[in-house]
Amino acid sequence: MNSYQVSLPLLISFFYVFYQIVIATATPPANNSSGYSVLQKHVAFFDRNHDGIIYPKETFEGFRALGFGVVASTSAAALIHAVTSQKTRPFSMFVASKFEEIFSKHAKQHPNALTSDELKEMLKSNREPKDFKGWLAAESEWKILFDLCKDNNGLLQKDIVYSVYDGSLFERLEKEHSKIMNNN
């Protein structure tokens, strides 16, 4: 399976995080994201026209730019906007100390990367009792990230994980997908 053949249920679960995390403030312009939280940088990729508002069409276009199909992109855009449109709690999802803790506690073989087994152990150790939706969301999100971004040695590098939070991973994947499409 190549990195763009992700099943729709996993894609939808990956973005369940948007049900938990809400962007109440306007997103920053993509070309000037300094001074913004990592969460704002994360969503700036989807603000395709840089007006500070992310419309379903822009979410669809962002998913297409990442290489997802029409059905998956349409479903993800509909789901994301359906579950986040009513939320208005402003806060930042990224906590640097918790991010560092992922690797200090769980990256045993390589200090700046996680193996598949280490990732599974990390997810298991961070489960909240009886939060089945949370378990599904976390496992789906991390599995997709691992499948898309593991290196040739089967490791998920720390800088790649950080790039999800600051949104730069989306930019990189879009460029890679564009190169593939232009070569075909």
TrEMBL record:
Arranged from A to Z, the UniProt key words for this protein are: Membrane, Transmembrane, Transmembrane helix
One MF annotation (Gene Ontology) recorded for this entry: monooxygenase activity
Q: Does the keyword Membrane apply?
A: yes
Write out the transmembrane intervals: 7-27, 65-84
Top-rank lineage group of the source organism? Eukaryota
Give the family per the record: Belongs to the caleosin family.
Instruction: From the Swiss-Prot or TrEMBL record, give the protein name.
Output: Probable peroxygenase 5
Q: What is this organism's lineage?
A: Eukaryota, Viridiplantae, Streptophyta, Embryophyta, Tracheophyta
